[in-house]
Design a protein that fits this description.
heterodimer; A: 439 residues; OB fold (Dihydrolipoamide Acetyltransferase, E2P); 2 domains; 6-stranded mixed beta sheet; globular; B: 120 residues; mainly alpha; nucleotidyltransferase (chain A); nucleus (chain A); transferase (chain A); EC 2.7.7.7 (chain A); DNA-directed DNA polymerase activity (chain A)
Chain lengths: 439, 120
């Protein structure tokens, strides 16, 4: 019997371009500025954009500032929305004499039927009325154009609303591509009681081609990139109480990182990977989160395939633009607005052209002075959010021929699901890993 | 409570002149915010110790121009950002801020922060 020498399977390659400089804050200097600066930058950019879209929408109406509103005159105003929410936690509640208003059980969602919207620009603010603009859909920080008129009560009655819509998308050359896959995973939560090391090891073994026969390995050789979208480690809260740690507890602190580094070394030896910080990772709290320090990964950081990235993260693989976050922006929208599906939130942020409209109102954010880095100026081809409850995907089409694949990446420690994206046609599949034997 | 003023008479002076400090020669040049008044700051509002909120040399033309630049909402909020950085930002955003502001600020003898700087 002859033993055939096994053929070497080559993994496919892609070109990688990073657009992460926008989210880095190394060059920023804090001089005591407040958040009014970032709101000004946001309003200025979005207003210029909306002014250019208004003629195509309703060209016959005059555009005016909020202070220039005249009662009864139909006009268009542009400004930042502010949603007044009765149940939104306020720091002053601690000092209020009557405690009866605050509910004893903290709600996960702060919406209330008495919420109302206000539109603001530099000149003033006006309360919004009418039923076109639903307070359950919008959040503070979104910039829109409104058509309506001021009533005698001083309320602006909204008849129509114009959102910025999907940004322009760079045309991708339609050359016949071959199948190349990107794996997206999030919420590994190594170190938490619910994470299963065997499940993650299965994922690593599968991606690096150590599982299966030649046919399966041939399929795996088409995986070209791995993106880890946040929450890779989870340190139990008990250790982080602020007390000095005994030496046995100190090793508990570093165990998750050692374990993660071992796994990432196996991955980095095999294919390029991007790791983003999440809400439970040791990175700064406010967005944009800065890349995890390379000294946390002594083994894997030596590989040039290892990339520590910001959150949000924007990059291009073979001219396909990816944009995504580790979930904090969508989780915040869940608290302050409602939708049938998480992908609805994702689509809304794209139509509002802003990754995190609730920053800095309810989402921690760095006080930029001259720009708002969360504005989306070029439509991505793939837009993902990590650390969600379940896997979901949708293809969104824009009015100018844009096409975006929205992906909601579930938490791997809870679901065992990673996402496999085919770069040729932007189709998505769930890659499920299980360690239970069904009887 | 605050310590009593050193000069009670100066504190409660009703005449339309300035406090006992020798800045009264410039009092007529003040461009007052309140119309119809010769002085920029009524004696009742002068802080203890007699120092004015706006010093006398704030009222030349350069300072006026800079104050108008600070107050112009078109260029965004003025608090928390140095004047030159606010001017740079306005230029970068395409708002065409007047070039004379840049030359005044680069000459260096003026306050870096806006007129609210350090007072809020």
């Amino acid at each position: 019997m002859e033993v055939e020498s096994p053929e070497q399977l080559q993994r496919k390659q892609t070109t990688y371009l990073s657009f992460g400089e926008n989210f880095e804050i190394q060059k920023e200097v804090y001089r005591g500025q407040q958040y009014s600066q970032i709101y000004f930058a946001r309003l200025h950019w979005m207003r210029a954009l909306l002014y250019s879209l208004v003629p195509n929408w309703k060209s016959h109406l005059p555009v005016c500032t909020i202070l220039g509103l005249e009662e009864g005159t139909e006009c268009i105003i542009v400004g930042t929305l502010y949603k007044h929410m009765k149940l939104k936690p306020c720091i002053l509640d601690e000092y209020s004499k009557e405690r009866s208003v605050a509910p004893l059980v903290k709600p996960h969602n702060f919406m209330n039927q008495d919420d109302y919207l206000v539109l603001e620009d530099e000149s003033g603010r006006v309360k919004l009325g009418g039923t076109v603009l639903s307070p359950s859909v919008y959040v503070t920080g979104v910039v829109v154009a409104l058509h309506g008129k001021e009533t005698s009560a001083g309320v602006f009655f909204v008849e129509d609303v114009l959102e910025a819509g999907l940004p322009p998308q760079i045309e991708r050359p339609l050359k016949s591509r071959e199948d190349k896959y990107v794996v997206l995973v999030s919420g590994l939560s190594i170190g938490s009681s619910s994470s299963n090391p065997l499940q993650f090891q299965l994922l690593v073994d599968h991606i690096t081609g150590h599982l299966g026969d030649e046919e399966e390995q041939g399929l795996v050789a088409e995986i070209v990139h791995l993106v880890i979208a946040g929450n890779s480690v989870e340190i139990s809260r008990g250790i982080l109480s602020g007390q000095n740690l005994a030496s046995k507890d100190q090793s508990r602190l570093s165990e998750p990182f050692k374990e993660l580094d071992i796994q990432l070394t196996q991955i980095a030896a095999s294919l390029p990977l991007d790791i983003m910080p999440g809400s439970s990772d040791p990175a700064n709290f406010s967005l944009p989160q800065q890349p995890l320090n390379r000294c946390l990964f002594p083994g894997s950081a030596t590989f040039n395939t290892f990339r520590s990235c910001t959150n949000p993260h924007c990059f291009e693989l073979d001219n396909i633009r990816f944009l995504g976050t580790s979930g904090q922006n969508i989780d915040d929208l869940t608290k302050y607005s409602e939708a049938k599906d998480k992908l609805d939130f994702l689509e809304r942020t794209l139509r509002w052209r802003h990754l995190a409209p609730t920053a800095p109102n309810t989402l921690g954010c760095y006080p930029f002075t001259d720009r708002d880095p969360f504005l989306i100026d070029s439509c991505p081809d793939v837009y993902f959010v990590g650390n969600q409850e379940k896997y979901g995907t949708r293809l969104v089409k824009g009015s100018e021929g844009q096409s975006v694949r929205l992906i909601s990446i579930p938490r791997f420690c809870e679901t065992g699901v990673a996402v496999l994206l085919n770069m040729r046609n932007l189709e998505c599949h769930a890659l499920t890993f299980g360690t239970q034997f069904s009887s | 409570m605050a310590t009593p003023p050193k000069n009670i008479e100066g504190f409660y002076k009703q005449k339309k002149s300035n406090t006992s400090k020798s800045k009264s020669s410039n009092s007529t040049k003040h461009a007052a915010a309140t119309s119809g008044s010769n002085i920029a700051q009524p004696p009742a509002l002068v802080s203890h110790g007699g120092s004015l909120d706006l010093e006398a040399d704030d009222f030349d033309e350069e300072q006026q121009v800079l104050r108008q630049f600070d107050m112009n909402m078109e260029f965004g909020p003025c608090i928390g950002i140095p004047r030159i950085d606010r001017w740079e930002r306005a230029r970068r955003l395409g708002l065409n801020p007047p070039k004379e502001i840049e030359s005044i600020l680069k000459r260096g003898k003026v306050k870096r922060q806006s007129l609210f700087g350090g007072r809020t």
